[in-house]
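REVIEWER CHECKLIST
Item 1: Sequence provided? yes
Item 2: Single chain? yes
Item 3: Sequence as submitted:
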Amino acid sequence: MVNKILSKIYELHLKFNKNVTTKGKLIINGRPIVIVTNGSTLNLGRNVKLNSSNEKYHINMHSAVKLYADRVGAKIVIKDNTRIHGTCLHAYQYIEVGSNCLIAANCQIFDGDGHDVYLEYPIKRINTSGGTNPVIIGDNCWIGANCIIMPGVQLGDNCVVSAGSIVRGSFNENSLIAGNPAKCIEKLK
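Item 4: Structure as written out by the authors:
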């Protein structure tokens, strides 16, 4: 009962945030961390589930869902019927997650490098913000637990990313993706 009340409070908090757009019912378990900088946006489709609760989840979830639109103009779009479990989406510019996606616990999805390399003067690295490259995840994708989705990744519809993969680059629809670095290991039918 307490969890249901808290979930409703978190849902209302999101619905009244001027930088957040919701298109319908949200399903919230536990307390997500949502940081939407003024001038940035978060768009949540119908029946999006944000699960930050280990209570009935099949593996150990290390952290709450974190949705962070970090800079002015940053945008996170999560389309209808997508479920996100204990994962961080950190947008400097743009992250889009399609409809009917499953994102398992402990994944990291980000569109920015965080810092420039600065090989000649590594001490300067701390004061840089690095480049950005949008992340686009198509419809019906399944990203297994503990994956890292790097800046610039584009997944076509119906892709499956094996648990623990580190993904860079673009993958066509119906790809089974696995490894470090991740590769298409099979075309799904």
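Item 5: Key structural point noted by reviewer: The first helix runs from residue 2 to 15.
Item 6: Recommendation: ____
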